[in-house]
Amino acid sequence: MQLDSHAIADLPSQKRAAFVNSVTGFKSANLVGTATTEGATNLAIMSSVVHLGSHPPLVALIIRPGGEERHTLANMLATGCFTINHVNTTMIEAAHQTAARYPQQISEFDATGLTPEWHEDFPAPMVGEAYIKLGLQLREHQALEINGTHLVIGEIVKALFPESGLMTDGSLNLSACDTVALTGLDTYHEGLPVKRMAYAKPDLPPRQAQLMVKSPICAA
Q: For residues 183 and 194, what is the distance between their CA atoms, to the nearest angstrom?
């Protein structure tokens, strides 16, 4: 089957959204936590978080267009900080429910039963049920003219994770930490490793490195 730009444009809007959201492959499933300047909390599931660089440690995410109902973006711009919290298998239902458009006066934490976790030196809430959680300072915001979305770039200034999930090479064993992936808008997947490859070099053939085997779920 093949679709060109005209065929994609002619798809019913819901089917087009489902197709384009899934055709890009597996994505990260994260809860983005923010607060107003008065401390009222907000939580939203997002699948657009990507790595931009490690020095400084930058990540980017795309926030869909919208006006006053985009409470996450408004809070980011007002306070200059936000959190990113990996979704795990124990919190899928609650995490997914944060996509509902609650009015601003209702916190998604309260609506879903998730726990806001505060740290004295950081003014945005993390998710208590998450095993991997990051605190970020806003470094750049761009409104994209092409489709009205917003590009947000943050620097990781705080990282909380189970010590048992940290591997000797510095990477995190996301499978052992029960981090899930997302396809489309509504399908969640366990991240089971298949093969780990050694660093690629032009004078050596592809080599397999030690495979990360999933261990029991990390405890924070």
A: 18
